[in-house]
């Protein structure tokens, strides 16, 4: 049995607790929130009658001595939670983003290394079935090596609350999902970005609801991102809409179920090379999916086997570096190098 303390009992904690109740061999032994009444309400809602409730993480960890901490707090509190978890010899699984700044991200990853503890991030877009299929298909070489990756993200949610007041709202709150998926699907290593943000006249956000970015992913691969939190009409999927161009063909994905590929074949129609449809194979039995549930299972498996989870912090920090690189570029109006020591 793996005993866990969950810290942060706001709205997002429901997605975690819904997944946790489906996992055998995992017990929530403590719930922590600055508002202890909110933690008690979560305990009643999920029948966690034996869980220790508190507003001080260190005190609850001292009392429960768990193997792991699940971090669902606001990003600004990530570093303090991480250092507390590692000081109590706990493994740590955290909601995205890994941290609220490059400095805090590096500090958390380094603290995990020094403590010898497993640290991973809930970067759940990797656990979408079609993201797995695309990665496997491109790795097969069926249409050659990817050269250009393009993603559009256009939705118009009226969240209310903090998002409508925060700076860099699209890049900081949402874009990491798309950035991480792009990096994963083509096995890219980010090295530079140019980005522009703007606030359209129709926006109800304070700053940064629309952005366009161009990333260098290494090996001659370029990734373009265009997105908006205030684009009414023709809404894309939450996964975005994708076109990946490769040496001998292309793949498109609407972010839902429409996943298609074409490969170049001998001959031409006028000035255009001929192409034909090629099947993108279904999921392989080894492909891990399931969003929060899949990632939590992966994390528990890593604890039990001493292996590293796929979304480990030391890798996820590269996707976070794409976010902060884009923000710096938007603020300075220049291309920003994403150096290894910034990851």
UniProtKB/TrEMBL annotation:
Domain GFO/IDH/MocA-like oxidoreductase: 131-251
GO molecular function: nucleotide binding
InterPro entries: Gfo/Idh/MocA-like_OxRdtase_N (IPR000683), Gfo/Idh/MocA_Oxidoreductases (IPR051450), GFO_IDH_MocA-like_dom (IPR055170), NAD(P)-bd_dom_sf (IPR036291)
Origin superkingdom: Bacteria
Gfo/Idh/MocA-like oxidoreductase N-terminal domain: residues covered: 2-121
Annotated protein name in UniProt: Putative dehydrogenase
């Amino acid at each position: 049995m793996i005993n866990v303390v969950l810290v942060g009992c706001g709205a997002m904690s429901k997605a975690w607790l819904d997944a946790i109740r489906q996992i055998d061999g995992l017990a929530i032994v403590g719930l922590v929130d600055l508002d202890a009444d909110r933690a008690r309400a979560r305990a009643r809602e999920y029948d966690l009658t034996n869980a220790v409730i508190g507003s001080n993480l260190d005190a609850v960890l001292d009392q429960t001595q768990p193997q792991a901490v699940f971090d669902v707090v606001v990003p600004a509190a990530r570093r303090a939670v991480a250092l507390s978890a590692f000081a109590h010899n706990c493994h740590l699984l955290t909601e995205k983003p890994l941290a609220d700044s490059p400095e805090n991200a590096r500090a958390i990853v380094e603290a995990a290394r020094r403590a010898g503890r497993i640290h991973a991030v809930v970067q759940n877009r990797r656990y979408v079935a079609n993201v797995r299929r695309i990665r496997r298909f491109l790795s097969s070489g069926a249409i050659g090596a990817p050269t250009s990756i393009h993603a559009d993200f256009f939705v118009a949610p009226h969240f209310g609350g903090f998002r409508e007041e925060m700076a860099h709202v699209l890049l900081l709150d949402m874009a990491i999902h798309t950035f991480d998926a792009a990096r994963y699907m083509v096995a890219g290593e980010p090295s530079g970005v140019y980005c522009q943000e703007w606030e359209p006249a129709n926006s109800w956000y304070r700053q940064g609801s629309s952005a366009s970015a161009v990333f260098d992913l290494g090996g001659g691969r370029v990734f373009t991102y265009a997105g908006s939190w205030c684009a009414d009409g023709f809404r894309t999927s939450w996964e975005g809409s994708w076109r990946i161009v490769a040496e001998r063909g292309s793949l498109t994905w609407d972010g839902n179920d429409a996943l298609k590929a074409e490969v170049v074949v001998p001959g031409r129609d006028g000035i255009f090379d001929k192409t034909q449809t090629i099947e993108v194979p279904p999921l392989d039995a080894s492909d891990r999916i399931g969003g929060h549930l899949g990632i939590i299972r992966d994390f528990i498996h890593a604890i039990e086997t001493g292996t590293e989870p796929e979304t480990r912090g030391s890798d996820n920090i590269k996707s976070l570096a794409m976010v902060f690189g884009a923000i710096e570029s938007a603020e300075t109006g220049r291309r920003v190098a994403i150096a290894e020591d910034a990851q």
